[in-house]
């Protein structure tokens, strides 16, 4: 990890983890938490662990918390589990809930959420599934209440015909008889998948998208 001070032209470099391998699939994902502390996620390409650390001070790469491991993942049909491509997103209108996306053990885009800056995590779930194929996905966010993503049905060199599908999640206020039930809920919209609030997975173009989740659900 490196930082560069444009005023002093000083570069500071620290090593967070040894021997992850020389592979551009292993590039870490960096996230800036509210308040300026840094959070970094990293793993081998298809590694059996996803690691992460938080900087102890805002905008400072010289001091880090102890290394932690993501405690949740999906698994393949034969029981294997692996991690690649971490993508963190944080939404201020969800109480700064942290969403982490990656390719999980199922070889599908996978996600988990944390409401306490990575101290605890919700169980991992597939975001998109196309059995027998590996959908690829890119993420973007307004950092407030929306997560945008675009995904393929599989690898472009694979055996399936593939295209790119855009989709957006959105946090909405719901109404209900209790304060707990009136918490925000999330809807997912795609040009090729009808929006829904049921527990039925969203299906489109041969893929299955995870059903919408209410905040705090497991």
Keywords:
5-stranded antiparallel β-sheet, 0% helix, mainly beta, 4-stranded antiparallel β-sheet, disordered C terminus, 218 residues
Q: In which order are the strands of the major sheet placed?
A: 12-13-14-15-16
Please describe the biggest sheet, giving its number of strands, its sense, and whether it closes into a barrel: 5 strands, antiparallel
General form: globular
Strand content: 35-45%
Radius of gyration: 18 Å
Integer tally of domains = 1
Low-confidence stretches: 174-187, 191-206, 211-218
Proportion of helical residues: under 10%
**Number of contiguous helices:** 0
Mean pLDDT: 81
The H-and-E topology, N to C, reads as EEEEEEEEEEEEEEEEEE
Number of strands: 18
Instruction: Tell me the distance between the termini.
Output: 34 Å
Q: Which structural class best describes the helix and strand composition?
A: mainly beta
Structure description:
This protein has about 220 residues and is an all-beta fold. It has one domain. Helix content is about 0%, strand content about 40%. It contains no helices and 18 strands. It has strands at about 1-5, 10-15, 30, 40, 50-55, 70, 85-90, 95-105, 110-115, 125, 130, 135-140, 145-150, 165-170, 185-190, 195, 200-205, 205-210. Strands 12-13-14-15-16 form a five-stranded antiparallel β-sheet, with no helix packed on it. Strands 3-4-5-6 form a four-stranded antiparallel β-sheet, with no helix packed on it. It is globular.
């Amino acid at each position: 990890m490196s930082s560069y001070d444009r005023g002093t032209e000083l570069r500071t470099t620290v090593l967070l983890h040894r021997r992850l391998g020389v592979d551009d699939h292993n590039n870490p994902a960096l996230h800036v938490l509210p308040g300026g502390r840094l959070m970094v996620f990293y793993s081998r390409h298809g590694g059996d662990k996803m690691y992460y650390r938080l900087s102890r001070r805002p905008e400072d790469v010289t001091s880090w918390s102890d290394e932690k491991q993501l405690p949740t993942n999906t698994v393949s049909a034969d029981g294997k589990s692996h991690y690649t491509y971490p993508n963190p997103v944080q939404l201020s209108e969800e109480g700064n809930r942290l969403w982490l996306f990656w390719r999980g053990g199922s070889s599908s885009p996978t996600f988990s959420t944390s409401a306490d800056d990575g101290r605890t995590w919700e169980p991992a779930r597939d975001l998109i599934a196309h059995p027998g194929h590996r959908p690829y996905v890119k993420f973007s966010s307004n950092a407030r209440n929306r997560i945008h993503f675009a995904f393929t049905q599989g690898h472009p060199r694979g055996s399936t015909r593939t295209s790119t599908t855009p989709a957006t999640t959105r946090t909405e206020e719901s109404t209900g008889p209790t304060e707990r039930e009136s918490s925000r809920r999330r809807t997912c919209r795609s040009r090729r998948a009808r929006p829904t609030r049921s527990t039925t997975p969203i299906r489109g173009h041969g893929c299955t998208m995870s059903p919408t989740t209410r905040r705090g659900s497991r």
